[in-house]
Amino acid sequence: MDNIIVTKDIHKSFPLGNKETIEVLKGIDITVPKGKLTILKGRSGSGKTTLLNILSMLDDPTEGTFFIDGEDMTKKSMTEKEMLRRYNIGFVFQSVALIPIMNAYENVDFALKLASYEGDRDERIKEVLGIVGLGKRMNHMPAQMSGGEQQRVAIARAVAHKPKIIFADEPTGALDTASGIAVMKLFKELIEKEDITIVMTTHDPNLMQLGDMVYEMEDGMCTEVKETKDAG
Fold first, then answer.
1. Any residues with CB less than 8 A from the CB of 201 and at least 6 apart, and which?
2. What is the DSSP secondary structure assignment for residue 62, as one 8-state letter?
3. Could you give the 3-state DSSP secondary structure of residue 53?
4. SS (H, E, C) 112-167
5. Where are the domains of the chain?
6. Is 218 helix (H, G, I), strand (E, B) or coil?
């Protein structure tokens, strides 16, 4: 199986002041299979969000390197990273961060404009809102939607411009169990329909069985706890 992301000895330290530092990541070696759902599981402070921020090029490692589609991302310029984030990556966060004065349709359209989407925007917006089960809610404002519905709009917005990878940081963290499982099943459906790779963080052990690849993070270190059957 092809791996879309490979990390090699990723370390990340942050200054504490008084010339001291705290090492948050301590030599991370993982592989992310293409077209699968990879979960980084761990308690708060385990380093999972820091690793996700590095993989999505929102932050840089202190040491080590990582590759996306075989290219060394640590050698890319800031402008190159920005372009990759804009066109090839989608983001979903625990805080859905929808624009409150825009309805569901307009929120997705705004994302397509930012990504300079060259296809038929109207067709694509209706397509992705239909995929996430909100085809009849596209004119509703965020305040008129439940938390689960808002998160589905955020997911539609993340996939609309057809990225290669979606990074999702605690996407179910603010949802009840049923809504969280629905989001996970939606992720699996999107992987099939949209031919994308999803990397997400969670602290919820109940979601682990839904991942194709699961890594347990603890104290800045990472252990593989589940591997998809056809990986290798």
1. 39, 40, 41, 42, 48, 49, 52, 168, 169, 170
2. S
3. helix
4. HHHCCCCCCHHHHHHHHHHHCCCCCCCCCCHHHCCHHHHHHHHHHHHHCCCCCEEE
5. 3-226
6. strand
Tell me, what DSSP letter sits at residue 110? H
Task: Indicate the length of the chain as a whole number.
Answer: 232
End-to-end CA distance of the chain: 6
Rg (CA), the chain: 18
The DSSP output letter for 73 is G
CA 67 to chain centre: 16
Q: Count the neighbouring beta carbons within 10 Å of the beta carbon of residue 93.
A: 16
Tens of each residue's pLDDT in the chain, 232 residues = 699 999 999 999 999 878 889 999 999 999 999 999 999 998 888 999 999 999 999 999 999 999 999 999 999 999 999 999 989 999 998 777 899 999 999 999 999 999 999 999 999 999 999 999 999 999 999 999 998 899 999 999 999 999 999 999 999 888 888 888 888 889 999 999 889 999 999 988 878 788 899 999 999 999 888 775 554 3
Strand partners, 177: none
| CATH of segment(s) 3-226 | 3.40.50.300
Q: What is the pTM of this model?
A: 0.91
